[in-house]
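Protocol step 4 of 5: obtain the predicted structure for the target chain.
Materials: sequence only (see below). No template structures provided, no constraints applied. The aim of this step is simply to have a reference model before the mutagenesis design in step 5. Sequence pasted as it appears in the construct record:
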Amino acid sequence: MNSGDNKIDRRDVLKGLATLPVLGILGASVIAKKNHAEKQKAIILNELNIEAALPPPIGLMEGDPIRLGIIGYGIRGEQLVQAAGFASKRWLIAMKEESSKNSKDTRLQDFLDQENLNVVFTAVCDVFDIKAEEAIEAVTTEQNQPTRYRNFKDLINSPDVDAVIIATPDHWHAPMAIEALKAGKHVYCEKPMTHNLAETLELYQVAKSSPKKFMVGHQHRQTLSFKTAQNVINKKILGHINMVQANTNRNSDNGAWQYDIHEKASPETIDWQQFLGNAPQIPFNQEHFFRWRKWWAYGSGLTGDLLVHDYDRINCVLKMGIPKYVVASGGIYTHRDGRNVPDVIQVAMEFPEYFNGSSQENEKEKGMSFLYSATLGNQYHRSTLLMGHDATMQLDGHTLEIYPDPESTRFEKLLADGTVDPDLPLYIYDPRRNQVDGVTSATAKYFDKKGLLYTYVDGKRVDSTNLHIKEWLSAIRNDTPISCGIQEGFEEAITALMGTVSIRSGQRVEWDHENLKIVGMTVEEADKIMLA
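Step 4 output (structure tokens):
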């Protein structure tokens, strides 16, 4: 709103002098300003008609407990098991200490307040003995004693397992998911869904033909700001979106995958051959085992680990699918420690056929660029921007703001009469209210700003991974919808793999949507580029 429109001009003041006591003049001015602002606010809200989102309906968790198996109890595996209701003793002790030192740190209480999802973990598999033992300790109850499996195939084929959670290094995601679906198990698979093109196409067919519930671990789909953003897009408030900008900024060893190496790691405590799987056969290497994200052989680099978060955040809002073209570049500029995965990248994804409606004349607008950049050497936060002819939406982990464009067609009248100001947001959504986040480390704050830790329901903080696991379990029990199933996972995987092929080959990569292939390359040629 224009600052000039908020002022009471000189004639208003003189009229006030004639009719009001001196002390009443200021009060009249404030009331007039407030009434004017409320009137303008009503006009804007009526024009936008945005509906702030609520969580999707979830079926009841009643009945016999669902019997789960966890494959991989590393950093993410432990978080997923905790989201399902079973925290490690180490974490519980640490959180109790933190909450005693800081009353605003509510992570322990948030966990204790989680809904009982009515599950038991009957099976555990990890190639590192220490982690397998920690997992068993976390999920054991008086009524349930889990079995430790040393080979994932034995866990998958166990008659005591209904569904599996896969939280292994990336190169094992698809092989395990395919095996589990074929064995008649429901699957929750961490992102990225796959590691190469051949297994992506195979998993796509297997999952589509399976009656079992398959979910990919993009928990931000539970975050209410993204659901509200969907409502904004559906009502065409931004106009035709022609550009999206998303970013990753981290600046710590942990954020650059330089994870701690466990003091008890050795060939005696780690099944090295099972870890390697289809990766190149090399002698036992602690750094490769604990810091596997730094090598293409096991991980997926910035494209598969972090771009996929931002891609799926936008895809759940815009539903633009797989890009037609991808061009990527970058290098190892911030962590020269022997890794072969870039730590700084730029990726341009082109969607020449994308169109989400327009306030302008027909056929004037069509197509969109999605620009993603990442650095592991700077943590300055950059918001995600969805830029349309009529407005720009700034989308963060929990909030969104909408700014009208000065040249907007839709808001032309409101701009002209000063009801809206391009320098001020038309709309702000923030469900946190006065809630204080209990996030402390730079890594935790990064994930929080991406909407990957928590969402807020009626002002109360809720673990978004818990909601995502709950959605999967509800689908198993009640045949309710899944927000990130095989189609969404396929779109995420292909987009990330196109970025990997581009950055490793130095070429622009084109996707053939009709024939599900990279133009000018066989599947074998593409995979050779990615895995070389």
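Step 4 remarks: The longest strand covers residues 241-249. Residues 22-48 form the longest helix (27 residues).
Proceed to step 5.
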